[in-house]
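G., the chain you wanted modeled:
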Amino acid sequence: MDVFSIIGEVIRSILKVIPKLVIIRTTHEGVKFKYGSIVTKVSSTNGLGLFKKTGIHMYWPLITEIEVIPIKRQTADLHSQYLSTKDNVTIGLSGILVYEISDVVKTLTACFNYEETIPELALASIKKVVITYDYKHLHGQGNSVDKHLTKEMRVFLKPYGIKVISVCLSDFSKCRVLALWGSANTIA
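Predicted structure as tokens:
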């Protein structure tokens, strides 16, 4: 180890005991993890001390971590999946989820990675809804299907602090999936 590496490590260690400030914008909220387990919500309206009505927060990096995420309107592009309808018609579909984060504490503590969890649960709820309809209804009654999807997705995502605004199928087509299953590879 050279002298500059040692100096760098000493400076990083010293910076861990000096309090830091973080500014949280009105479009964001966060969670402060004190001692790794005490959870406090931080936002643009609950600052500390002299900064009570602003988004300025102070924390000690040695014993505290702050994670800040956007909470206002966001979208998730739900990738294509292939499902069979109630009348055994295979369809390919994808969707768009519009949501807000209503409870940042739940979002950041109920799962490890909320950015992956939201689309995965959304795709699961799409499957749950689509397989209950026949192809004609899905093809002809798009608005009622989107409303059903939105209602179902609200149930799936509420435990994670997500408020679903709307869901719609963006791509929808009849398809045929051909697969030859063997011991080596799958050919589609």
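The helical segments are 3-15, 104-109, 114-130, 135-140, 142-157.

Shout if anything looks off.
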